[in-house]
Design brief:
four-stranded mixed beta sheet, 1 helix
Length: 129
């Protein structure tokens, strides 16, 4: 189911991209101020704006085993031919693994700059039913 969910989201992204930000459909979350509620065994995606051409990328840290990290992928925003360095979204896939609550803390940093604080930090709250 994980691969199908990611493939579906990426297919949607490839065909439905507005000028400013890409939109995903289904169980895709972008707003950390809203608690994510998911049934045990179900997958969900979190999409965050990203631009790896700057050296920055998001990493996810889970608070406990209620949520399982299934990986991430980067999808560049389509731009005119010859334009380089544009951003896109880093899309993370998770599964509600066990009943309970968890937090997912995302840090946007340059992995090669050891000891430097993250440029951005975002925390999502998840309830697995």
């Amino acid at each position: 189911m994980k691969r199908t969910l990611i493939a579906t989201a990426l297919a949607v992204l490839a065909f439905a991209v507005p000028a400013v930000a890409m939109e995903l459909s289904g169980n895709v979350y972008t707003d950390a101020s809203q608690t994510i509620s998911v049934a045990k065994g179900n997958d969900f995606l979190i999409a965050l704006p990203s631009n790896p051409t700057t050296g920055y990328s998001w990493t996810a840290r889970l608070s406990n085993g209620s949520v399982e990290d299934e990986g991430s992928a980067y999808l560049a925003q389509p731009v005119a031919r010859g334009i380089v360095g544009s951003g896109g979204q880093q899309i993370f896939s998770f599964e509600g693994a066990a009943h309970g609550s968890a937090t997912i803390t995302f840090s946007y940093a340059r992995p090669f700059e050891k000891g430097m604080p993250a440029a951005k930090t975002v925390v999502f709250h998840v309830t697995v039913n």
